[in-house]
Each structure stands twice: as C-alpha cells, then as structure tokens.
Amino acid sequence: MDDDSKGSHLSVVVDLSPLYWARSALPAPENEFPLTLAAFLAQLLAFLNAHVACAHENTLAVFGAFPGKSILLYASSAPIPDGLAPDTNSANAYPPFNAVDAAVVQRITAELDALPEQDEEAPSALVGALAKALCYVNRFTLPPSANSKAQANGFHPGVLPDPRILVLSVSPDLATSYIPVMNAIFSAQKLKATIDVCQIYGPNTVFLQQAAHLTGGSYIFLERRDALLQYLIMSFLPPPAIRRTLSVPTQEQVDFRAACFCHKRIIDIGFVCSVCLSIFCAPLPVCTTCR
C-alpha cells in the first residue's frame, strides 16, 4: 500500500477567545468582512467533514483553546463521552459527520457557557492546545508496548500517516509564549508533523509564522473572512503527500523576530548568550539564565 492510500491525520487547534470573536463579528466600519463565531463553526464543521469524507482511513482530532485552558473536543480514535452522543435517529445524517458535529458543537457550547464572568479575559491557551495536539500525535507514534495504557483508555495506537496540525487563530502574539512555541516547533520537527496556520482575525502572528515555515506548513492571513471555507478546502485539506504536486500558498516573507527573555517583548535586535543562547534586549555582563 502506498503512502497516498494510508489516509492522513489532521489535528485542528481552534482559538475560541470570546473577546476576539466578538471583535471579529463587529460590522463595518470596524470590519469589512465580519465573521461571527456561529458562521465560523458552520464552515469549520464543513471542512472537518470534508477531511473525514476524503478517505476512510483519515483520522481527526479537534482541540479547543479557551481563555486559560485547552481541551480535547473530539478525537476519532476515542469513544464519544456520555452526554455528547449524536442523534442516531436522523436518517439524513451520515453517522461520522453527525458524530463530529455533535461532539464539537456541544463541547464548545458547554465550555463557553461555563466561563466565569471577569473584567479582564485571560489569554487564550493556544500554545497549550498546540502542545496537546503534539502529544496526541506522539502517543500514536510510540511502539505498541508503550501504548498499553492508551489501549486501556480506548485508543488504538499506530503510526499516523502524514500527521499535520492546523491552527485557526484569532488572538495576537503573546510574548510570554515564545519559548513554549519554539519548543512545540522542535517537537513537531522531530515528529515530522506539519503545522499549518490560518490567521482569521487580527494582525499577523510572528510566532505562528515561524511555526509554519520551520515545519514545512502553510501560513495564510485571511483577508476575506467571508471566504473562509474556500481557503480551508483549497489550502489545508490536501495532506502533505499530495501538496507536492499542488500549488499551495506559501509565505513570501517570514518574520523571524524573537521575544527577549528579560522583558518578554518582541524585539528587532537582541543580544544572545554564547553559552545557553538566551536572548536579551540589552547587553548584560552576566547571563541571567545560565550565569
């Protein structure tokens, strides 16, 4: 069996920050192409169903990044928890599509309703969701003997063909997440997992640009949010094995700026420790990391 017939694994990391989705839904003149969270979820589910329909062997996992926490919303390798089971009485719904739609929508709705009311919203745990997606891929790349606990929990280990992660972001860069993002990039390179990024709202994200570039993925800044589904289908649906023969959009310029370790600010020019490679915005007589 060749690589193209083994299916493909897709992990989707969804940024579900209520603050930035509320800003994305504002009409003109704030947004030329407003996009509400409900409209986004409808197009996202169509994209997820398209991935499931492409091949029977395709696997899917969806992670949600909420303010201050990240959770697994759906995984095709695990049974759906009680209370999130789809409606099996609908004769017009394809069961795999119905399972994805019910699990993702119900879990997102429950988590958003459970968020506490705060004067200042906590940052979206996008990096935490990305790390969980990498852990999910790593779990299936371990030898069968190391996955006895995973089998007991209902997971079925096996090497995931063409693992890739799609990050759908609406939040800006968080300078304190620079080191965790870099660690995630190195882990993705070791796992040979591709990271794709679609920035739906807000400015370009420096760290996610680097993640896509360094793992061989695609980074797209969405200018026409009313055409989200078209961008998803044309750019992110084909697996890496098929992209070699397609003209997938790539980055013309990549922002390689880093965040300093002292003030956690994104800087244009920095000073690097020759021993531990820590980055500082000003020269220091003694490195505060390794002394």
TrEMBL record:
<dbReference type="InterPro" id="IPR036465">
    <property type="entry name" value="vWFA_dom_sf"/>
</dbReference>
<dbReference type="GO" id="GO:0006289">
    <property type="term" value="P:nucleotide-excision repair"/>
</dbReference>
<keyword id="KW-0805">Transcription regulation</keyword>
<dbReference type="GO" id="GO:0000439">
    <property type="term" value="C:transcription factor TFIIH core complex"/>
</dbReference>
<keyword id="KW-0539">Nucleus</keyword>
<dbReference type="GO" id="GO:0008270">
    <property type="term" value="F:zinc ion binding"/>
</dbReference>
<keyword id="KW-0862">Zinc</keyword>
<dbReference type="GO" id="GO:0005675">
    <property type="term" value="C:transcription factor TFIIH holo complex"/>
</dbReference>
<dbReference type="GO" id="GO:0006355">
    <property type="term" value="P:regulation of DNA-templated transcription"/>
</dbReference>
<comment type="subunit">
    <text>Component of the 7-subunit TFIIH core complex composed of XPB/SSL2, XPD/RAD3, SSL1, TFB1, TFB2, TFB4 and TFB5, which is active in NER. The core complex associates with the 3-subunit CTD-kinase module TFIIK composed of CCL1, KIN28 and TFB3 to form the 10-subunit holoenzyme (holo-TFIIH) active in transcription.</text>
</comment>
<comment type="similarity">
    <text>Belongs to the TFB4 family.</text>
</comment>
<keyword id="KW-0227">DNA damage</keyword>
<keyword id="KW-0804">Transcription</keyword>
<comment type="function">
    <text>Component of the general transcription and DNA repair factor IIH (TFIIH) core complex, which is involved in general and transcription-coupled nucleotide excision repair (NER) of damaged DNA and, when complexed to TFIIK, in RNA transcription by RNA polymerase II. In NER, TFIIH acts by opening DNA around the lesion to allow the excision of the damaged oligonucleotide and its replacement by a new DNA fragment. In transcription, TFIIH has an essential role in transcription initiation.</text>
</comment>
<dbReference type="InterPro" id="IPR004600">
    <property type="entry name" value="TFIIH_Tfb4/GTF2H3"/>
</dbReference>
<keyword id="KW-0863">Zinc-finger</keyword>
<keyword id="KW-0479">Metal-binding</keyword>
<keyword id="KW-0234">DNA repair</keyword>
<protein>
    <recommendedName>
        <fullName>General transcription and DNA repair factor IIH subunit TFB4</fullName>
    </recommendedName>
</protein>
<dbReference type="Pfam" id="PF03850">
    <property type="entry name" value="Tfb4"/>
</dbReference>
